[in-house]
Design goal:
This protein is an alpha+beta fold. The protein is built from four helices and five strands; from the N terminus they run E-H-E-E-H-E-E-H-H. It has a five-stranded mixed β-sheet, with helices on both faces. The longest helix has 21 residues. The two termini are about 25 Å apart. The structure holds flavin mononucleotide (FMN).
């Protein structure tokens, strides 16, 4: 784990995309994504969170602007998802996900209360969220992740 403080050039990009991975392969593939992300993101001072839920990815990437945009462009070419839509991108005052170079969270049944509170349980469509609603969702997920897992870098928690 590497906690990295913000800098003057800090940017955050949040996007949502549709998962193209078949369910039986999902855990393994997301594990691979996180392994590559931890390695690459650490080298680029990028931190973030990847939410995996109901056929959708939602991810926050934060760090210096150019590495964040380069990383996003690389991610866009990944066939494991499609239809990526940027929900927000721009300067950020501080890191919201500074504890993780990247970690993934799969929402469990017990997390439904979070989705209820955000009015997102039915027809979960993160690609339709406003910038502020998307960040609120990922910050709520950050909260569960921080409370529940002893090792937050653990690739994927089963529902
Ligand atoms: C939803 C999603 C999120 C990803 N997030 C990251 C990321 O934050 N950082 C990263 O380096 N790769 C990420 N990847 C993986 C990249 O698309 C690519 O496979 C990887 O960067 C290749 O790294 P390598 O050349 O070191 O193997 C993501 C892929 C997907 C599908």
């Amino acid at each position: 784990m590497s906690a990295i403080s913000g800098s003057r050039t800090l940017h955050r990009l949040v996007y949502a995309s549709e998962i193209s991975i078949l369910e039986p392969d999902l855990e393994h593939e997301v594990g691979g994504i996180i392994q590559a992300s931890m390695r690459n993101n650490r080298a680029r001072a990028i931190t973030g969170l990847l939410l995996v839920h109901a056929g959708w990815f939602a991810q926050a990437l934060e760090g210096p602007a150019e590495p964040v945009m380069q990383t996003y462009r690389r991610i866009l070419e990944d066939p494991r998802h499609k239809g990526a839509k940027v929900l927000s991108a721009g300067p950020a005052p501080s890191r919201e996900f500074g504890d993780w170079n990247m970690c993934a969270r799969r929402m469990s049944d017990a997390d439904d209360a979070i989705l209820d509170a955000l009015a997102l349980r039915d027809a979960f469509r993160p690609d339709a969220l406003s910038a502020s609603a998307a960040l609120r969702l990922l910050k709520a997920v950050r909260g569960i992740q921080a409370r529940r897992t002893f090792d937050p870098q653990r690739p994927l928690e089963k529902p």
